[in-house]
Amino acid sequence: MHTSSFFSYGLHFFTYLILGMWGSHTAFGQTTWSGVVTDGTQAVVGANVYLQNTYFGATTDTTGSFSFTADPADTSHLVISAVGYQTQERTVLNSKETASLNIHLKEASHTLQGVTISAGSFEASDKHQAVALKPLDIVTTAGALGDIAGALQTLPGTQTVGEDGRLFVRGGEGYETQVFIDGLLAHSPFNASVPGIPTRGRFSPFLFKGTTFTTGGYSAEYGQALSSALLLGTNDLAVQTQTDISLMTVGGSVSHQHRWEKSSVWAEGGYTDLTPYQWAVPQDVQWITAPRAWNGAAAYRHKTSSTGMLKLYTQVNRSKLALHQPNVEQLPDTELVSLENDNLYANVSFQEAIGKNWTWQSGVAFTYDEQQVIIDQSPIRQQQRGLHAKSVWTYDVNTNVVVRAGAEYFQDQFDWEMPSSEGDVALTPSLIDWRITQFVETDAYLSSRWVSRLGVRTEYSKLTDTWKASPRASLAYKTGKNSQVSLAYGTFHQAARPDYRAVNSGLADEQAAHYIANYQITQQGRTFRAEVYHKQYQQLVKFDPTQPYNPLAYNNQGDGYARGLDIFWRDRQSVNNLDYWISYSLIDTERNYRDFPTTAVPTFASKHNFSAVGKYFVTNWRTQLGASYSFASGRPYFNPENPQFHSDLTKDFHSLSVNVAWLIRQHIILYASATNVLGRDNVFGYKYASQPNESDSYNRIPVQPTAPRFFFVGMFITLSKDKMKNQLDTL
Amino acid sequence: MIMKLLSISIALFWFATLSFAGNPAYEKAMQQAIDQLNQAGSPEAYQAVANQFQRIAQVEQEEWLPRYYASYAYIIQGAMSDEGEQKDQHLDQAQEYLDQAKQMMPEESEVVTLQGYIHMIRVTVDPATRGPEMAPLATQTLAKAVQMNPDNPRALLLLGQMQYGTAQFFGSDTSEACALISQSVTKFEQVEAAPSLYPTWGENSATASQKACDQ
Question: Does A5 reside within a domain?
Answer without folding.
Answer: no
